Each structure stands twice: as structure tokens, then as C-alpha cells.
Backbone:
């Protein structure tokens, strides 16, 4: 009887955790929806374990060369919500990267002694801010490549039509 009660309690707690996790996922999706269209979005996260984990959403405007939105969810429980860090708004991407590297060095102090930070390394742990900055940089690089390819295509097309008209 007590064993059945124990299993029932454990099952109820797992179900409650699942339901509350769905609320947290909805909050995350809502925040992403609010930031859609504000600029290039970068997302980073760190798992907390016994300390607070975090999810970070950064929106960067290339035209303004500044951060236009900075939302951080930090905490141990599923009741943590997204908060705006006003101090990060208006910073350039290079400033954000410098701050991210400093935070990464503090957060992963022991790990960085053995494994120095490498932007190309995908398997090593990194701080949430540096993850967000790296994802923004990659998206901007892809946009640059696509723009260059479009220009080349237009140049080739323009040259072909000029030759055909002669």
C-alpha cells in the first residue's frame, strides 16, 4: 500500500513538473515572438545543476550597430521569468563579445585552465552571452555571403544582357 502511494506521489510530481515546464516553454516562445523583427536574434543558455541556469535572448540591429533587446531568464526553478537588462541595451556587438568573454572566464574558471576559449569549438561549454554573440556573428556572416552571391549573380546577368544586346 505504501509503495503504491509512493509511486503515485512520484508520478504526480513528475506530471506537475511537466505541466509547469510547458508554461515556461510558452513564456520562452512569447519572448521570441516579441523580439521577432527587431533585429538579428542570438540565443544562449547555461545549465545550472545546483546553481542557477539561464537562457539569454539578444536582439542586435546591424543598421544601428547596437543591442536593441536583451532578455535574461535566470534561476533554479521553473518560476523564473524573463527580465530586461537595461545596462546591456545600446552596446555594440564587440562590447557584448568582450563582456561575454569576461563572464565566460569567470563562470568556467577551472575549465578554461585546461580548455581555453575557442570560438570554433562547438563541444566545449561556453557562457550564455558568448553563445548568443557567436550565433549573431554567424547569422551576419551568412547574410553577408548571401548578399555577395546576389551581387555576383546580378553582375553576371547584367553582363550577359549587355553582350546579347550588342
Residues:
Amino acid at each position: 500500500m505504501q509503495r503504491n502511494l509512493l509511486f503515485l506521489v512520484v508520478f504526480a510530481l513528475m506530471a506537475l513538473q511537466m505541466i509547469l515546464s510547458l508554461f515556461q516553454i510558452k513564456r520562452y516562445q512569447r519572448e521570441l515572438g516579441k523580439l521577432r523583427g527587431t533585429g538579428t536574434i542570438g540565443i544562449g543558455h547555461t545549465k545550472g545543476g545546483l546553481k542557477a541556469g539561464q537562457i539569454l535572448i539578444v536582439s542586435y540591429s546591424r543598421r544601428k550597430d547596437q543591442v536593441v533587446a536583451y532578455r535574461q531568464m535566470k534561476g533554479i526553478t521553473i518560476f523564473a521569468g524573463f527580465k530586461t537588462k537595461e545596462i546591456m541595451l545600446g552596446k555594440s556587438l564587440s562590447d557584448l563579445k568582450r563582456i561575454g568573454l569576461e563572464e565566460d572566464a569567470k563562470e568556467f574558471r577551472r575549465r578554461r585552465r585546461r580548455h581555453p576559449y575557442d570560438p570554433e569549438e562547438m563541444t566545449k561549454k561556453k557562457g550564455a552571452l558568448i553563445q548568443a554573440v557567436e550565433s549573431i556573428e554567424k547569422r551576419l556572416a551568412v547574410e553577408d555571403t548571401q548578399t555577395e552571391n546576389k551581387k555576383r549573380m546580378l553582375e553576371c546577368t547584367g553582363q550577359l544582357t549587355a553582350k546579347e544586346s550588342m
In short: The longest helix spans residues 128-165.
